[in-house]
Design goal:
Layout: E1 5-6, E2 9-14, E3 23-25, E4 31-34, E5 39-44, E6 53-59, E7 64-70, E8 74-79, E9 83-88, E10 94-98, E11 100-101, E12 104-105, E13 109-114, E14 120-124, H1 134-140, E15 145-150, E16 158-164, E17 167-172, E18 178-183, E19 188-193, E20 202-206, E21 213-217, E22 225-229, H2 235-240, H3 245-255, E23 266-271, E24 277-283, E25 291-297, E26 300-305, E27 310-315
Parallel strand pairs: 1-24
Antiparallel strand pairs: 2-27, 3-4, 4-5, 5-6, 7-8, 8-9, 9-10, 11-12, 13-14, 14-15, 15-16, 17-18, 18-19, 19-20, 21-22, 22-23, 23-24, 25-26, 26-27
Helix pairs in contact: 1-3
Amino acid sequence: MDRPSELVPLRYVAIGGRGPEDVVSDARGRVLTGVEDGRILRIDGLTEPSGARVEVLAETGGRPLGLELLPDDALLVCDAELGLLRVDLGEGIVRILADSVAGERLRFCSNAVALSDGSVCFTVSSRRYPLDQWIGDLVEHTGTGRLLRLAPGSESPEVLLEGLQFANGLALSADESFLVVAETGARRLTRYWLTGDRAGRSDPFVENLPGMPDNLWRGTPDGPVWVSLAGPPVPPLDLLHRTAPAVRGAAARIAVRAPFRPTGTIGALAVDDQGTIVHRLARRRSGYRMVTSVCEAAGHLVLGSLWERGIAVCERPAPK
C-alpha cells in the first residue's frame, strides 16, 4: 500500500452541536449532518470569508447517524434509537419507514443507500450493544451486524446479510450490481452482489485496511467511494478477537465502563469499483479526532466525527 498523503484540516466549523457523525453534501456544496440532540443541520458557505451558516432542517427526537440524500428534496436517516427515517427537507416532517425486523427492534441503524428501484438498503451495526456502548461490540467481536433491504411500500425489512463485524458505512457500485459494506470490527470492506449469477452472495472487497472503516460516501457514480477511518489498527484488540467468547465478553463489560478518548490519528481512503485504493490520506497527532465520515463539498474534503462539536474542512487531493 502506498505511503499516505497528509490529511490536514484547513478550517474547523463549529455547528452548535456535538457529534456530526455522518456528513453528506448536496449539489450546491452544502453539507448535511445529524448531531447528538437529534437535530438535522445544513451548513452553507464553507469557504466564505464571512463564515459558514448553520440551519436546522428537522429534529428526529432520537440520535441520527448515517444520511442519504434523495432526489425529491428528502433525506434518509439511520437513527440509532428510532430506526430508518425519511425527512422532508422542505417541511421538516419526520416519518419512520422501519423500526423493527422480524419482530426485533432496530436499535442501531447505521448507514443507508437508495437504489433506483425505490428500495433502501441499510446496515445495523450491532444487535447486542446500543450506540452509547459501541465500544463493547468492537471488543467482544459479536458479529451481529446486518445488511437489510426495505422494498418500496413495505414496512418490514428483509435480511440480506448477517454475521457482520459491526456493519457500518454503505455505498453502491456505479452500475448498482453490488453494495460495499464497511465492517469496522474486521477492518475490511465487504461486497454484496445485487445482480448477476452471484446475486445474494458476498465476498471480500478490500481487506486489512490501515484503520477502522466507518461511514462511506459516494458523490457521483463515476467518482470514488470515500472511506472514513475512525481510528488506527489496535494490535492488542486483534489478539483479543482470537480468544474465547467468554474472555471477549468480560473485556467488553470493562470497556463500556472505562473512559474513552480517541487517538489523534485520523485517515480517509478513496476506493474505486475494482477495490483499488486511489487515495490514501492520514495524519497523526491531529487536533480533530475520530473521523467517522468524509465527503466532498465546495471543492474540499469535509470530515465528520462522533466525538467533535464541528466539522473539519480539508484540501481535496488531485484526481487520479
